[in-house]
Design goal:
This protein is an all-alpha fold. The protein contains two helices and no strands.
């Protein structure tokens, strides 16, 4: 497995942690803050853009 696979795996794990709001014990909760809401919105926009690009590339 090359570094791109490991980088992709790390990105998926980080995105999952960001969307679910997982946090270590003893830290402040940011899962319901405005910043996390905007981060989730940005992540959703990026996913929609990539899905659209994949659709366009597949349909020709």
């Amino acid at each position: 497995m090359n570094y791109l696979v490991w980088l992709g795996l790390a990105a998926v794990i980080v995105a999952f942690a960001a969307v679910t709001g997982i946090k270590p014990k003893g830290t402040r909760s940011v899962s319901h803050s405005r910043m996390m809401g905007m981060g989730r919105l940005a992540l959703l926009a990026i996913v929609i853009i990539f899905v659209y690009l994949a659709y366009r590339a597949r349909s020709g």
